[in-house]
Design goal:
The protein is of the alpha+beta class. The protein has a single domain, classed as Structural Genomics, Unknown Function 30-nov-00 1gh9 Mol_id (Rubredoxin-like, Alpha-Beta Complex), CATH 3.90.820.10. The protein is built from 1 helix and 3 strands, in the order βββα.
Length: 62
């Protein structure tokens, strides 16, 4: 049995938590409470590229 996290045909979202943590999340699953969609519905590669671009722009943690 495959999960939506590893299925080749799953579409994804990029979520951000209230603390600024990013997550690539299967679009078929409910968005967890408190998290916001910031990218998608898109293929996993597109979501990974979005997160990589955002991470370059993030300031270093104090």
């Amino acid at each position: 049995m495959t999960t939506p996290f590893v299925s080749a045909h799953t579409m994804f979202l990029v979520l951000v938590s209230p603390t600024g943590q990013y997550s690539i999340w299967p679009a078929v699953l409910q968005v967890p409470a408190g998290w916001q969609v910031v990218h998608g519905v898109a293929c996993r590669q597109s979501c990974e590229e979005f997160v990589a671009a955002v991470r370059v722009d993030l300031p270093a943690a104090a």
